[in-house]
Design brief:
This protein is an alpha+beta fold. The chain is built from ten helices and 13 strands.
Length: about 290
């Protein structure tokens, strides 16, 4: 049986275990954080492939070398997707629809930031370039509010160990429907719509992040939405990708991507989701027939 290293023990780990075991793939935990790693001794166990390169590069690089691991989504794939500005630039250059976006590289003076939003309509969304799960994302209603948020970002970026000192100014799309589309091996594999409860929306909340209370409901996505997500994954060259679409009346854009997407309930994906995922894992491990070799 092929053995797959998964570096987290969150929902995805639990959901992968049984369906992949039925397809000849054992899902096993290879912790990447909160531990010590002996860099000079052979590891005591074996893995044929890794699922997604760890979020921390030093630990991921060490584990990759020790276990000689190929990854379904390797370091390049994770870094590509995590760079929100790079994703927007790459997709825009490929003529795929994205929100109007400007990257700010700190330190930038107030006049430059104020000039950068002249072509936007208020409110404007401010996004740290490399965070996930909506962390640090804010909305500014005017220049003074924007510059106040930038003041806080300047304090963070002034810390010498802060690696990414960029953030994005992005147009706000009111009442947009928020979709997470799953792409496996270049092909649409299902989608969910993330939506806050109506009471929260009435109270002024606007971030449709599941870990902050939004519900993810399986949806039958229109064909043009599916093609857009597939084109985004192809442009970025990431084999296993969550593509976030924002859809308003008459317009659909790629807002960002996630090369470490959480796997949801199988009922929210196409019936062949796990067959495709197993095939991708087997090919990554260098054994298309690995599941049958048992």
């Amino acid at each position: 049986m092929l053995r797959l290293a998964v570096t987290t023990r969150a929902e995805t780990f639990d959901r992968l275990q049984d369906p992949l075991a039925e397809r000849g793939i054992e899902v096993a935990h290879l912790p990447a954080e909160g531990r010590t790693i002996d860099l000079t001794a052979p590891p005591g166990d074996h893995f044929d492939a890794g699922f997604v390169f760890p979020s921390r590069t030093p630990e991921g690089t060490a584990l990759s070398a020790l276990y000689d691991l190929p990854w379904v989504n390797d370091r390049t794939a994770v870094r590509t997707s995590r760079n929100k500005g790079g994703v927007i630039a790459a997709l825009s250059a490929a003529d795929l629809p994205v929100p109007k976006t400007t990257m700010v590289s700190n330190p930038a003076d107030e006049a430059a930031v104020a000039d950068a939003v002249e072509g936007f309509s208020w409110p404007v969304v401010i996004k740290p370039n490399s965070t996930t799960r909506g962390t640090g994302v804010a909305k500014a209603a005017d220049v003074d509010s924007l510059l106040g948020i930038v003041d806080y970002l300047n304090l963070i970026h002034d810390y010498r160990a802060t690696g990414d000192k960029t953030f994005l100014l992005q147009e706000y799309l009111p009442d947009a429907r928020d979709y997470r589309v799953m792409i496996v091996d270049g092909t649409y594999a299902g989608a969910v719509e993330r939506r806050l409860p109506e009471a929260d929306r009435a109270a002024g909340r606007w971030k449709h992040n599941v870990h902050r209370g939004a519900e993810a409901r399986g949806v039958d996505l229109p064909a043009d939405h599916r093609r857009l997500a597939e084109q985004a994954a192809e442009t970025l060259g990431v084999p296993y990708l969550g593509v976030d679409l924002l859809a308003t009346d008459g317009r659909v854009v790629v807002a960002e991507t996630n090369a470490r997407p959480t796997v949801d309930a199988a009922t929210k994906y196409v019936p062949e989701f796990y067959d495709r995922l197993a095939g991708l894992i087997q090919r990554t491990a260098g054994s298309d027939n690995g599941a049958e070799d048992g």
